[in-house]
Design brief:
Blueprint lengths: L1 H27 L6 H26 L5 H9 L5 H25 L16 H22 L6 H19 L9 H11 L1 H5 L3 H20 L1 H7 L1
């Protein structure tokens, strides 16, 4: 039953992330030429993480992102089974959030889908790897100590806001395969055709962050001595 609760929590968390984060981008017309909407969208994604971290964090850890779950698996924080079921739950939640959003907002808005930067796959892969690396590294650092528990949600939320502030101008900022898959499935077209970029790059960036953090982690270094 406890395991089931974790997966349900991940479905809910990712649902909320897509509905509110992508929803804010859609209803405000987020773009570089609209600074107010740009800032609101970045803030919305960050605030969702804060809200979910302090509501479902004690149930599932509030990954709500396959890239985060992969990093936690690499750093031996969760089992392979949990990683796979977390990922499935996150995609289910994201798709549900996107379809509900489409019931209120015209698909012509794009529903917060991601797009290639300058129609370049290499540039888009590069920026998403960098953004995800920074985001996941912050998560691994702040969650590495129990005493950080009270501020972890805030730090992670602000970190997601940070990467959105830069990344929206390039790709719309994914750093989360599930967040990209949901809206892309609903909107279709180029968003769906290019969604693989926003699956591969965040997973690669997260894996890189996990490997490097294991090397840098003082606790890990002490254990090897």
């Amino acid at each position: 039953m406890d395991s089931l609760k974790k997966y349900i929590a991940e479905i809910i968390g990712t649902f909320v992330l897509v509905f509110f984060g992508c929803g804010t981008a859609a209803v405000t017309g987020c773009s570089v030429s609209n600074p107010g909407a740009y800032a609101l969208t970045a803030l919305a994604f960050g605030l969702v993480i804060v809200a979910m971290a302090y509501s479902i964090g004690n149930v599932s850890g509030c990954h709500i992102n396959p890239a985060v779950s992969l990093a936690m698996f690499i750093n031996k924080k969760i089992s392979l089974k949990d990683m796979l079921l977390y990922m499935c739950s996150q995609v289910v939640g994201a798709v549900g959030g996107a379809y509900l959003l489409a019931a209120f907002v015209d698909k012509e808005t794009g529903l917060g889908t991601n797009g290639l930067y300058l129609d370049s796959v290499p540039k888009s892969l590069g920026i998403e790897i960098i953004l995800t690396f920074v985001f996941v590294l912050a998560i691994l650092g702040v969650t590495s100590k129990v005493e950080n528990g009270k501020i972890a949600g805030l730090v992670i939320g602000l970190s997601l806001t940070l990467v959105h502030i830069l990344g929206i101008a390039f790709t719309g900022t994914s750093v989360n395969p599930a967040r990209s898959i949901g809206p892309a499935l609903v909107v279709g077209g180029d968003a769906l055709q290019n969604v693989w970029v926003f699956i591969v790059a965040p997973l690669f960036g997260a894996a890189l962050a996990a490997i490097i953090y294991r090397f840098l982690d003082p606790a890990e270094s002490s254990a090897k001595k």
